[in-house]
Design brief:
Mean pLDDT: 89
Distance between the termini: 26 Å
Shape: flat
Oligomer: single chain
Largest sheet: none
Helix content: over 70%
Radius of gyration: 19 Å
Length: 277
């Protein structure tokens, strides 16, 4: 079994987990929620195996690099980080509600990687700009940040939904946490993501200097990474200095994730130094 085939199976595993989380929420069946959690765990184990297998395959082809160099590989890793962070949150808070949005996000990332005709799963040699020891550090830190922002986005949507619906109207198996818990979880995941995005931008600038002779070139992806950073910096500043909480923080989190999506996908349509990925 090659890595691409295994990872295509992961797409459907995450899709099944998302379906079961939704069914558990709609039909108020605890067993479905428990099954969804274990299927998500199965998915991340297979996802991990697929990443490792792809890494091994690259060496067997004489290419030999970490599977983090193109859109397909980054989407696979993005899905992996989303599920990882979600499972840590579920373990800590003993609540499956975040899975209702985390698993669909992971499924969509994998589906786009596996099914889109615009994304190639072929293992290719690194272009000269990517041949650097900074590759793993930069990509891993950025995508840990992106995944944390994805979870914060989901929690923010849950906050807004919970705010607009009385507890009696949403009395489902997934016991909705109190608003202050959701608000704090948004803040914590954004803080985690902001830390890793900051490290990602720093490692990227050092890498850019070694590859292109300049720490910053105002490339579209660099520019939008900075815009995204400022949005989340504004959120944290508003929270810690201005005392913002609740819906204002939730809406800022949603706006921030939209900037993440554009940084990840939208700028690839523009010419620039990052147009390869």
């Amino acid at each position: 079994m090659n890595s691409s085939y295994l990872l295509s199976i992961v797409t459907f595993i995450y899709g099944l987990a998302a379906f079961l989380y939704t069914a558990s929420w709609v039909f108020k069946k605890k067993l479905l929620g428990t099954a969804a959690k274990w299927i998500a765990i199965t998915g991340i184990l297979c996802n991990t195996a697929g990443i490792v297998l792809r890494w091994i395959e690259s060496y067997s082809l004489g290419i030999g690099h970490a599977p983090l160099s193109n859109m397909y590989e980054s989407l696979v890793f993005f899905a992996w980080t989303i599920i990882l962070i979600y499972l840590v949150i579920e373990y800590r808070y003993k609540n499956k509600i975040t899975g209702l949005l985390a698993t669909p996000l992971a499924f969509m990332a994998m589906a786009y990687a596996s099914l889109s005709p615009n994304v190639s799963s072929r293992i290719q040699p690194l272009i000269p700009a990517l041949k650097s020891n900074w590759l793993i550090a930069h990509v891993v830190t950025c995508f840990l940040g992106y995944a944390a922002f994805a979870i914060a986005f989901g929690v923010s949507l849950l906050y807004i939904f919970r705010k607009k619906n009385k507890p009696g109207k949403i009395g489902v198996f997934f016991h909705f946490p109190e608003l202050d818990v959701l608000d704090e979880l948004t803040y914590q995941t954004v803080t985690f993501g902001f830390l890793f995005l900051t490290i990602g931008i720093i490692t990227g600038s050092v890498w850019a200097n070694s590859a292109w002779g300049s720490y910053w070139s105002w490339d579209p992806k660099e520019t939008w990474s900075l815009i995204t950073w400022f949005i989340y910096a504004t959120l944290l500043h508003a929270r810690m200095v201005r005392g913002w909480a609740g819906k204002r923080i939730a809406y800022l989190s949603i706006i921030g994730f939209l900037a993440v999506i554009f940084t990840y996908f939208g700028v690839n349509l523009l010419p620039g130094l990052h147009s390869y990925g």
